Amino acid sequence: MDYAPNISLIASLLADPGRAAIIWALMDGTSRPAGELAILADLSPSSASGHLARLTEGGVLTLEARGRSRYYRIAAAEIGAAVEALVSASQASQTQRARAIPTSRSTPLPLRHARTCYDHLAGELAVAVYERMLGAGWIVQDGKRVELTASGASGLAELGIDVQAESKRRRQFACACPDWSERKPHLGGALGAALLQACVQLRWLRAMKDSRALHVSPSGSREIPRIAAQVSR
């Protein structure tokens, strides 16, 4: 092979249970201090400090200084997407081996219905929106690659999303992100993040304290199912 990406480096960083717990605690897109991450990951302060140093040096996490405090967050949306994909693969593997109940039935209901997947929407609500966008011809999927159509751009603009600005961001514009509870894709990438932000700004969704679950307002329960509901074909 002329070129082989060095996936072993990031794989080794994610393989340790302590580091995996730290990363999972940051999958809601927030920034947290070392002490809080140590508690969430059930690690001693010294152990958490060592893991955070390795994750930062490896480019998985980035460090933010806020006055005298230091906060850690996931370095890039692609890392969050990779973690979600690994969770999905892990759940599928466990079910295949043990023939257990489907993951969606064992996932807590608030997380199953609507949650964040790093910086975009996941869960039943997100999967349903994605399926409607496909059915309405708003998006076209080829493997994990997703392309936005003219009708999709027009529909998203009505939600206040600046598609042109999102397409210029230094990250993947749109992708089919595997949903680990529903075993179906939801919308990821810059476009997925913009959709979540639009729903938050419209007060259809609201973050829940200390959880990746999202509260769906009465207007959200009414309006989100209407996104791409009119099939244009």
From TrEMBL:
Name any one Pfam family assigned in the record.
HTH_20
Family annotation (SMART domains)? HTH_ARSR
Where in this chain does the record put each HTH arsR-type domain? Answer: 1-94
> Which one GO biological process term can you cite for this protein?
response to lead ion
List the CDD domains.
HTH_ARSR
Q: Sorted alphabetically, which Gene3D superfamilies does this protein's record hold?
A: Winged helix-like DNA-binding domain superfamily/Winged helix DNA-binding domain
Q: Which PANTHER family match?
A: TRANSCRIPTIONAL REGULATOR-RELATED, TRANSCRIPTIONAL REGULATORY PROTEIN
Protein name, as recorded: Transcriptional regulator
The organism is Pseudomonas cavernicola
Q: Taxonomy-wise, where does this protein's organism fall, top ranks first?
A: Bacteria, Pseudomonadati, Pseudomonadota, Gammaproteobacteria, Pseudomonadales
